[in-house]
Amino acid sequence: MSEDICYVTSETGLPFVVEMAGISYCDASYRISRQRSPIAVVEYVLSGRGTVQENDQAFTAGPGDVYLLHPYRRHVYAADSTEPWTKIWCNVRGPLVDSLLQAYQLQQVCHIPACPPALYERFAALLAATRQDLPLAEKLDRCAVHFLEIIVALAGLLRTRAHTPDEASRLLAYIDAHLLEPVGVGDMARAIYRSPSYTTRLFRRTFGQTPYACLAARRIEAARQLLADTNLPVQEIARQLCYADQHYFANVFRHATGQTPRQFRRSCHGETGNIRYNGDKDTQRRSRQD
Predict the structure, then answer these.
(1) In 91, 201, 204, 254, which residue has its Cα 20 to 30 A from 273's Cα atom?
(2) What's the confidence (pLDDT) of residue 6?
(3) Is the pLDDT of residue 280 over 60?
(4) 40-47 and 66-69 strand pairing
């Protein structure tokens, strides 16, 4: 685990503040948790995978994905144990952040998958601005411009995707409606009266992943909700979500989240004994959790 971090300022009372920005080369121990912090977080995943949760919304973020975590909410995010993240990120706060998220209608948006590689350049420009040898006010002004560019780009991407083809929207609806049933690409194709190959191409073009990958990710999200909000046995959750058996479900869940189902259920109830820290990075990681 290593992190190339630029610490900028913790001053208060400014319209826009970058507290930290950097690149994280994560390992399996990487986990961040905040409770109602004033910090907003925006991160672009370069490689690897991990799980992210804001309040009750949870998802898996992989290469090319951006996640946006809002101020004054609960943030928990952790790298995958076998394929951990490399990502570029910044932690920001202030009235300008709140205003931009509201103006561009991003208050409820946490996950923007399959972003274009060009968006990385905007993150890199913001990180470079944090390292410039300038008076603090001027440095933060330049960072604010780059942060605005990121927000505008994300909002534009979401507007474009809001006009997804009817067939793609129907595929998503079909997947959501059949999470508790055995479903294959052939079933999805029949739902839109297309061939399996066309269905896969359409899904990849529209959402940046295969239909099967989407189904698998949404079943993991459903599993998280059932583990967090019900007392159903793990075996019964596995059965309802069409996993072959409890052991296969546990392996898939651990690969996707870095935790076994039982560990995840305990963490949802405030039992954090399974959290690990990595040597001298403990202090650095705790500083990002405040």
Answers:
(1) 91
(2) 96
(3) no
(4) antiparallel
- Dig out the tokens for 128 from the structure: 């470079």
Predicted TM-score of the model (pTM): 0.60
Q: Averaged over 67-81, what is the pLDDT?
A: 95
Which helix (H) or strand (E) covers residue 112, if one does? strand 111-112
Q: Please, is 199 exposed, middle or buried when counting C-beta atoms within 10 Å of its C-beta (0-12, 13-18, 19+)?
A: buried
Tens-digit pLDDT profile for residues 253-275: 998 888 899 998 988 877 654 43
Contact yes or no for 97/71 (Cβ under 8 A): yes
Helix axes 118-130, 136-161, angle to 10 degrees: 160
User: How far is 24 from 1, CA to CA, in rounded Å?
Assistant: 8
CA 133, CA 139: separation in Å to the nearest integer? 8
Cα 39 to Cα 25, 57, 74, 80, 107: the distances in Å are 21, 18, 11, 23, 14
The reported pLDDT for the residue numbered 284 is 37
d(CA 103, CA 98): 9
Question: In the structure encoding, which two tokens stand for residue 116, read together?
Answer: 């274009």
Please give the structure tokens belonging to residue 213. 């990958």
Q: Which domain does 131 fall in, by range?
A: 2-162
At 153-199, the pLDDT tens digits run: 999 888 877 755 678 888 888 988 888 999 999 999 998 888 999 99
Do both 143 and 171 map to the same domain?
A: no
Mean pLDDT of all residues in 32-46: 94
Domain with 255 in it: what CATH number? Answer: 1.10.10.60
| Helix residue ranges, H only, the chain | 95-103, 118-130, 136-161, 166-177, 185-191, 196-207, 211-229, 234-240, 246-257, 261-268, 281-289
